[in-house]
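User: C-alpha cells for NUDIX hydrolase, please.
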Amino acid sequence: MIKKWEVLERKTVLKDKWIDIEASKCRLSDGTVIEPFYVNHIPDFAVIVPVTEEGKIVLVRQYRHGVEEVLLELPAGCMEPGEEPEVSAHRELSEETGYTGGAWKFLFKLCPDASKSSNYAWCFVAEGVKKTQGQHLDETEELEIVEMTIPEVRKALREGKFVQAVHTAVLYAFICECE
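Assistant: Done. Predicted C-alpha cells:
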C-alpha cells in the first residue's frame, strides 16, 4: 500500500505575495530520505466557462510571461484569502470581461501540478452571461475579450490553440457535457 511521505523538516526559502516556496526533508515508506523537495504554495484560483445567451463562449487573450506567449484562455484568477471559490469566480469573470449573471454550476476542482504545487483550480460554468459593464483589470493585466461558438472552440482545441492544461481540461469537460 502506498503511504504518504513523512515530513521530517520544512523551511520556507522564498515568500512574497504571489508564491511561497518550501523546501522539505521527507522520508519515504522504504526509509529513503529526499532532501530538498520543493513545493510551491500558490493561491487557489477559479476558472470559468462563461456562455452567453447566444451560446458563445467568452474567452480572453493575454500575455503569459512564463511561456513568453500570448495565450487564448478562459477567464480565471487567484482567489483572495478566505474567499469562497464561487465568489472568486464571479469576481474574476466580472473584472476580466465585464460579463455577469447567468446560471452557475461547479464542475470540479483540479490540481494543476500535484507533484510540485499545493494549489487547486476551481472550475465553473456560467450559462446565460451578459456584458453589463467594462473590464476592471489589475494594473498588470492586459486582456482582449474573444467570443467563440462551441464548434469554433472544439476546432481550436483540436488545433492546439489552448495550451493552458487546466483551461483545456475544463473546455473538454464542458464540451462533453454539451454533446
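User: Anything notable?

Assistant: The helical segments are 85-97, 150-158, 165-178.
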